[in-house]
Amino acid sequence: NNPHHHYHNNNNKNKNTMVENKPDAVEKALATLKPALSKLTFGGFMGFCSGYASKKLGKAIAFTIGLAFLGLQGMVATGYISIDWMKVKDDAIKAADTDGDGQLTVDDAKEYWRRLRVVLTNKLPDAGGFSIGFLYGVKSG
């Protein structure tokens, strides 16, 4: 009799189900990931979840903007409306430009990240791992 196997009788003598005590795929994966998981902080986990959600939200926003652009350009092409895209661009840059240089640059992106990080890590325990978790979440999303 193998000590690693248990047989359960489901009140039907013809149907025995074997449940093995050896590690399954999830247990093996957890054992492999144990060193990384032991370093996972609450802040890092929240960062991962926030990054994952941000990527999904970003895709939805990009889809919506793209769909609106397609519709607007279709109406421009058929003569229903006229759009001054240069004015749209200038107004968008003016609204999003954090340093007032008239351009959207990496410095603007850094400033938006700083602002977002301050909000998302406010009073968050173990916030040190938040940023790396966020990046991994964006990559995984």
UniProtKB/TrEMBL annotation:
Keyword annotations of the record: Membrane, Transmembrane, Transmembrane helix
BP GO annotations: autophagy of mitochondrion
Sequence similarity: Belongs to the FUN14 family.
Name of the protein in question: EF-hand domain-containing protein
GO MF annotations, alphabetized: calcium ion binding
Residue ranges occupied by any EF-hand domain in the UniProt entry: 84-119
Transmembrane segments: 60-83
Pfam families: FUN14
